[in-house]
Amino acid sequence: NAGVTQTPKFRILKIGQSMTLQCTQDMNHNYMYWYRQDPGMGLKLIYYSVGAGITDKGEVPNGYNVSRSTTEDFPLRLELAAPSQTSVYFCASSFPGGQTEAFFGQGTRLTVV
Amino acid sequence: DAKTTQPPSMDCAEGRAANLPCNHSTISGNEYVYWYRQIHSQGPQYIIHGLKNNETNEMASLIITEDRKSSTLILPHATLRDTAVYYCIVRPELRSGGSNYKLTFGKGTLLTVNP
Asked: Is B93:B29 a contact under the CB 8 Å cutoff?
């Protein structure tokens, strides 16, 4: 199993550009999450999904959109990039039910200039 | 979700036990204590979790006080590769159809293992 795979690993965007951060998992997990981590800070939840076709907002959803058309994929869309979205983005997945661990991808480092 | 309090940083000598404390005084009866760590710039890695009994796995031990208001993660023989930020997270037991499944990360404890 590859686990949780994120692409790209690095990206530089200009203000106002848009892009999609890709996340795919091969563990058949129902739950998937997107977090962002600013320098020196903990992770903040952007969006999450409990299954295909179901998504919901986390703590910091403004400026982002998500979709979940398949169990495996959970892309994160930035429509109008702003400098405040410069961050490291982590995707994670887990099974539902109690006492389950979440598996994280290796992150996408995004810089908006 | 209950909040957690951790010291911002700790040092430990290589080969010695690292004891990382966490306060979670508002924890509820159905909330688990989870520990994750994040090695520089990588994605967080699950370590261990528990409800009220002490737990041990190949990575670490988790000691939860009887009143469940605090816990300690123990790395029995710390190595340089254990240098990381350690996050203590309180999380309700996931139930079918429930919504409390997200992990809420604080700033964690930066553990530095020194040679």
From this structure: no
Judge contact between A105 and A32, C-beta under 8 A: no
Whether A1 contacts A105, CB under 8 Å: no
pLDDT per residue as tens digits for the range A62-76: 999 999 999 999 999
State the pLDDT at residue B107. 87
User: What's the rounded Cα separation, in Å, for the pair B63 and A52?
Assistant: 37
pLDDT band at A34 (very low <50, low <70, confident <90, very high): very high
Nearest Cα to B88, choosing from B57, B28, B48? B48
The minimum CA-CA distance between A34 and chain B, rounded to whole Å, is 10
The reported pLDDT for the residue numbered B115 is 95
Question: Shortest Cα distance from B77 to chain A (angstroms)?
Answer: 24
CA distance A2 to A9: 15
**Which of B45, B49, B99 is closest, CB to CB, to A99?**
B49
State how far residue B54 is from chain A, nearest Cα, in angstroms.
15
- The strand ranges marked E within B52-97 are 55-56, 61-64, 70-75, 84-92
Amino acid symbol at A11: R
pLDDT band at A98 (very low <50, low <70, confident <90, very high): low
Residues of chain B contacting A42 with CB distance shorter than 8 Å: 87, 105-108
The first and second tokens of residue B6, run together, are 């951790």
Chain B residues within 8 A of A98 when measuring between CB atoms: 32, 93-95
Of chain A residues 71-100, which have a CB less than 8 A from chain B? 88, 90, 92, 94, 96-100
